[in-house]
Amino acid sequence: MTESSATFLLFGATGDLARRMIFPSLYNLLSDGLLPDDFLIVASGRSEMSDDAFRADVDAALHQFLAAERYDAATAARFGQMIAYQPVEAGKPEQFAALSERIDGRLERGMSVYLSTPPSLFAPTAQGLAEAGLITPKTRIAMEKPIGKDLASSKEVNDAIGRLFAEEQIFRVDHYLGKETVQNLLALRFGNLMFEPLWNATGIDHVQITVGETVGLEGRVSYYDGVGALRDMVQNHILQILSIIAMEPPARMDPTAVRDEKVKALRSLRPMTAETAKTHSVRGQYTPGAVGGQIVTGYADELGKPSDTETFVALKAHIDNWRWQGVPFYLRTGKRMPARQSEIMIQFKPVRHSIFGRDGHGSGLEPNTLIIRLQPEEYIRLLIMSKRPGLERQVHLEEVTLDVSLTAAFAGQRRRIAYERLILDLLSGDQTLFVRRDEVEAQWAWIDSIIDGWKSANMKPSAYSSGNWGPSSAIALIERDGASWHD
Question: Mind telling me the catalytic residues?
Answer without folding.
Answer: 237
